[in-house]
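W.,

You were right to be curious about this one. When I first looked at the sequence I had no strong expectations either way, so I just let the prediction run and decided to look at it fresh. Below is the sequence, 151 residues in total, followed by the output.
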Amino acid sequence: MKAVATGQPNVAWDEAGNLVLVTREGQVRLTKTAPLPASAAHPQGLRAGMQIDLSNDAGRLHLVDGRRFTVTLACARFNGEWRAPTARNPLVRMSPEGIQQTRPGCDVGPGSPAFIANQTLTGDMQAVVDPNGERVLIVGDFGVLSGRVVR
């Protein structure tokens, strides 16, 4: 599963309406649990002001406004610019800046959660918000992040 999630997956819908991540290493099929059909997911559901608690202790992504974002982790943080998806361009574009330690001795080098999140949130990516507006899946060229929308 990790090889698929980190293997630059393509995102597709199968005939039953399930989300499928496909790579050369294999595929992962995500079965819907929401009462609405999977096709009701919002491919353009990211919006300014949204805060997302990222899975795997990757921190919190805050889409501050229509242009800036912040990721806050246990001992580091980074900011950047983002462009929301539109009908003409359904891809989200993120451009993170350098990682800042927020506590002495924090590891922000290659392999650290901050480094991985920074790399994953670089470039064009697809982002889908589930039909209930509770979960987010972000798939980019450098990895996959998922999380829960903060209410």
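Here's what jumped out at me. The chain has a mean pLDDT of 84. And, maybe more interesting for your project: The helical segments are 2-5, 113-120.

Coffee later to discuss?

I.
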